[in-house]
Amino acid sequence: MIGVKMKLSNETINVLKNFSTINQNLLIKAGKSISTMSAMKNIVAKAEVKEDFPKDFAIYDLNEFLASLSLFSKPELDFNNDFVVIKEE
Questions:
Q1: Amino acid 1: pLDDT
Q2: If exposure means fewest CB atoms within 10 Å of the residue's CB, which of 25, 55, 66, 71 is most exposed?
Q3: Which residues contact 14 (CB under 8 A, 6 or more apart)?
Q4: How far are the Cα atoms of 4, 8, 12, 37, 41 from residue 18, in angstroms, in the given order?
Q5: Residues 49, 10: contact at Cβ < 8 Å?
Q6: DSSP of the chain, one letter per residue?
Q7: Over the stretch 32-81, which tens digit does the pLDDT of each residue have?
């Protein structure tokens, strides 16, 4: 699974922005579904997105991740075995 690349749609980025208000940490599982739960477990959200994530990956600080994406005009996620790289297409 070295070098699987994908771009995030504006809709998915908006979902991630909304999820960041619920929980700063996010585990995205392989597939087209993203879900989150608040720390107090009283708010749960789930969204189906256009992208098909090739593998599970975790984001420790969702706001920092989104800020990093905003540094690029056309960000691309490059999935490697143990990490994800954000780069320009």
A1: 55
A2: 71
A3: none
A4: 26, 15, 10, 12, 16
A5: no
A6: -TTEEE---HHHHHHHHHHHTT-S-EEEPSEEEEEEE-TTS--EEEEEEEEEESS-EEES-HHHHHHHHTTSSSEEEEE-SS-EEEEE-
A7: 999 999 999 999 999 999 999 999 999 999 999 999 999 999 999 999 98
